[in-house]
Amino acid sequence: MAKSSTNDQTLTLHVPATASPKAAWLVVGAGTPEERRIEIGETATTIGSDARAHLRVTDPHVSRRHAEIVRSGTSIIVRDLQSRNGTYVDGIAVKEAILDAPATIRVGGTTIRFETEAKAPAPGTRRLGDAVGSSPQMQSVFELLQRLAPSDLTITLLGETGVGKDVLACAVHDASARRAGPFVVFDCGAAAPTLIESSLFGHEKGSFTGATTTVAGAFERANGGTLFFDEIGELALDLQPKLLRALEQRKIQRIGSTDEIAVDVRILAATNRDLEAEVAAGRFRQDLFFRLSAAVVAIPPLRDRLSDLPELVETILATEGKRLRVTHETLEALATYDWPGNVRELRNVLLAAAAIAEADLLEPRHLLLFKPRRRNATLADFPLGGRSLQSIERAAIVQTLKSADGNKVRAAKALGIAPSTLYEKMRRYGIQ
């Protein structure tokens, strides 16, 4: 893969030779009377509003020569031709991307489907780096990160504490073209407030009391590799403009120096905060938020993917060198807990259980949970049989309004209906 400039948000995907499709098409207006199908041949297929384009798109937001699809050896590549509004593959802005599976291409306000006669893809991997999970939720995360990893695109991982954002960030680095370079973690929540700028940008000898030597900061140490900002939402507001400048210019200045140092780094970030809410509250800069939002991936909490528990337990115990048999009852007990600390808490519980387990058998009585909290009952646990659908719907509306403190807009959103629909149902059921 040719190396792109550090500011070039280009997504380039590798495709194995065996996965090359025998035939491929671009489809516009799928399922409508105006459906058009253009087969991709050996010559470039241009997309644009120009009458000479192979696939002409009458869209005011599409450039005359917007993008092209070309075959290159065993690969099919989409390239943006310096269009006004960009080219998107599966929602990701690209300059160039290898199409190895059916995908959605968007130019302007027009959606184009890429289809192939390739063989069915192999089943999704059960792991990405040290992260494991065969649940649909984690399969979706793994697939997206695998597609993003080869690029230099900034990725922000969202998720609760303990879901494994740091593990996934490391996996992205290992799957990227920068894998031979350093992977540097900068924990925005753990750095001492008085030293955070020095830790990030470095300092010159004598620049402040205690600066007895010249020290390189995180940006310099990550040069040629990946810089991972863990808990980016904790970064002090007064330091955010300096970080934004470094991200945009890819240049930094050590404390006490006037010289600029060019750095070549790929940026990954993670947070357990709602950054949009932080922006609204004035605690996080909007321009930095947009700079970090090139690709945002949400990591599900453990309670939402309990089907991954067996392989997580097996992997954690194997990694720690614990040869223990886990009973079915133990797995059932683990599945009833709500895991507020997620995978990190699961690991701690398993290691504590392994320390007190007799022989090689891990049983429910060995589980020392931090809090005796249990997951809320699911809908299937409630005795709904024999009740009318109207009574069930009324109860759901009353309970949702109560949990939303009477806020009808929030209640409607939680119920998945429009506010006007909620008002109508409240009137019908006599709910005040």
Low-confidence stretches: 1-21, 118-124
**Beginning-to-end CA distance, first to last residue:** 63 Å
Largest sheet, order of strands side by side? Answer: 2-1-11-10-7-8
Strand content bin:
15-25%
Shape: globular
Number of helices: 13
Structural class: alpha/beta
Mean pLDDT across the residues is 83
Q: Helical proportion?
A: 25-40%
Query: Which value, in Å, is the CA radius of gyration?
Result: 26 Å
What's the count of strands?
24
Largest sheet: 6 strands, antiparallel
Structure overview:
Strands 2-1-11-10-7-8 form a six-stranded antiparallel sheet, with no helix packed on it. Strands 4-3-5-6-9 form a five-stranded mixed sheet, with no helix packed on it. A five-stranded parallel sheet has the order 15-18-21-14-22. Mean pLDDT is 83; it is low at 1-21 and 118-124. It is α/β, with parallel strands linked by helices. It is built from 13 helices and 24 strands. Helix 8 crosses helix 10 and helix 11 packs across helix 12. Helices cover 28% and strands 20% of the residues. The chain has helices at residues 136-148, 165-174, 196-201, 218-221, 240-249, 275-280, 286-291, 309-319, 328-335, 342-356, 389-403, 408-415, 419-429; strands spanning 24-28, 36-39, 45-48, 55-56, 67-72, 75-80, 87-89, 92-94, 96-98, 103-107, 110-116, 127-128, 131-132, 155-158, 183-187, 202-203, 215-216, 226-230, 251-252, 261-262, 266-271, 295-298, 325-326, 361-362.
Descriptive terms for the model:
432 residues, alpha/beta, 5-stranded mixed sheet, 13 helices, 24 strands, globular
